[in-house]
Amino acid sequence: MDLSPERLRRPARLLSALAVTAALGTGLAACGSDDDNDSAGGSSTAAADTGTTAAAPAELEAGTVKLGLATALTGYLAPYNAPLNNGIKLAVEQINARGGVGGRVRLELAEGDVKSDPATAGTVAQQLVDGGANVLVSLCDTDSQVSIAAVAQRTETLNISPCNADPTIPSKFDAYWPVAMGANAQTATLADQVKEAGGRNVWILEDSGVLYIRLISDWFERAAESRGLEIVGTDTFRTGSKDFAAQIAKLRNANPRPDAIVSAMLTPDVATFLRQLRAAGVDTPFYGTDGFDSQLTLRVGGDAVEGATFTTFGYPTRGSPTEQFYADYRTEYGQDPDGAFAALGSSAIQVLASAIEQARSTDSAAIARALSDGLTVDTPLGEVAYPGGGEHIPAIPVQVTRVQDGRFVSVANGPAQDVPTP
């Protein structure tokens, strides 16, 4: 099914077609390409040439956009999606407190529990659409994102996905618009960290039954090749394991010995693994991804996670938009967010709101066209920039964080370099 911006002009179960607007100014920064501004009425050149005057864009009609959040309220993914959900809710509240998007369009949020199960995710997504959701918002689980994107494609519903571990999903589902960096960008940065630390021989641990973990492993191998890193061994584990003796035995007996271990295992598994690894006398440096980004990792891992490095979405460095978001989050929830997932959730909603403003419409075709033509949004994670030309994957900084003295510290933040092409 074709869900390109042209196809999405047909109304179906998408956002109601409202009039075009010039009433911007909610503070969500958005700027499109010159072509987009011209087509939206930003240029009067044609009118001057013909001696006519271009009509002023109509005011955005007041209304409501219903967001269907398919998330994991229960199951093993719930700890990650709880802060993500809070960030989404906070952004909705902040936008509505300003009178809505463009001061006219309020956002309404409905949740559905996918129970950390990809099959259930598709069912829940369909229920949310049947309940009137105009936009589907995905949880951070790659298997579930595919299920949700399939429903969005079939029902012609716009799909915003905060996480983006599989950068090939947009090529399969036109309705799907991710916000975070793809696994190819994340692993490119991770491979650079291994190389900069003097690593060469890499050992990969993966769970082939979890798509997110498998994708990180696959993309890291591609990034490693261009950086002269050698994968000297791979092994598997099962998410939720309590005993990593078999994996540790293989690591100890590996020849050549690896000087870096790379894995996208989630917490608390990663903390349990590192405790057992260090207890066995193996001090090989560990490199992980956003599944590491939780205070639970520090609590469970203790001294064993010291020195571990991981890539994630953001960090509250002094003066950064992420720091301001943390302050807003503390005011709302009485505590710091657990990792960068909350800021990612808020950023996803701000991207949607800015696309509505840039499109000067809440019609889904217009929103998709604004993203497709190019859009830059200031978010709690910094600039999220959709490059235009129909590209669904935005440019967004990759954060590198390390455990130092029992806490997370920022190592680097910036665009990924030499990223493998999806």
Molecular structure report:
It holds the Pfam family Peripla_BP_6. Belongs to the leucine-binding protein family. This is ABC transporter substrate-binding protein. The protein has 422 residues and is α/β, with parallel strands linked by helices. It has two domains: 7-47 and 58-181 and 319-391, Response regulator (Rossmann fold, 3-Layer(aba) Sandwich), CATH 3.40.50.2300; 184-312 and 399-414, Rossmann fold (3-Layer(aba) Sandwich), CATH 3.40.50.2300. Helices cover 39% and strands 19% of the residues. The protein contains 14 helices and 15 strands. It has helices spanning 34-42, 45-50, 78-97, 118-130, 142-155, 169-172, 183-196, 211-226, 245-253, 269-279, 295-301, 321-333, 341-359, 364-373, and strands spanning 30-31, 63-71, 105-113, 135-137, 158-161, 176-178, 201-206, 230-236, 260-263, 286-288, 309-312, 375-379, 382-386, 398-404, 407-414. It has a seven-stranded mixed beta sheet, with helices on both faces. Strands 3-2-4-5-6 form a five-stranded parallel beta sheet, with helices on both faces. Helix 6 links the parallel strand 5 (158-161) and strand 6 (176-178). The longest helix is centred in the first third of the chain and has 20 residues, at 78-97. The model is unreliable at 1-54 (pLDDT under 50).
The CATH architecture category of the largest domain equals 3-Layer(aba) Sandwich
CATH topology of the largest domain: Rossmann fold
Computed Rg: 22 Å
Percent helix among the residues? 25-40%
Distance between the termini: 21 Å
Tell me, rounded to a whole number, the average pLDDT.
88
Number of helices: 14
Q: Please identify the structural class as seen in this structure.
A: alpha/beta
The number of distinct structural domains comes to 2
- One letter per element, helices H and strands E, the order comes to EHHEHEHEHEHEHEHEHEHEHEHHHEEEE
In CATH, the homologous superfamily of the largest domain goes by the name Response regulator
Strands, count: 15
In the CATH scheme, the class of the largest domain would be Alpha Beta
* Main sheet record: 7 strands, mixed
Give the DSSP E fraction (strand runs of 2 or more residues).
15-25%
- Biggest sheet, strands in spatial order? 8-7-9-10-11-14-15
Which residue ranges are poorly predicted, with pLDDT under 50 across at least 5 consecutive positions? 1-54
- Overall geometry: globular
Domain Leucine-binding protein: 64-406
Keywords: Amino-acid transport, Signal, Transport
Signal peptide: 1-29
Pfam families: Peripla_BP_6
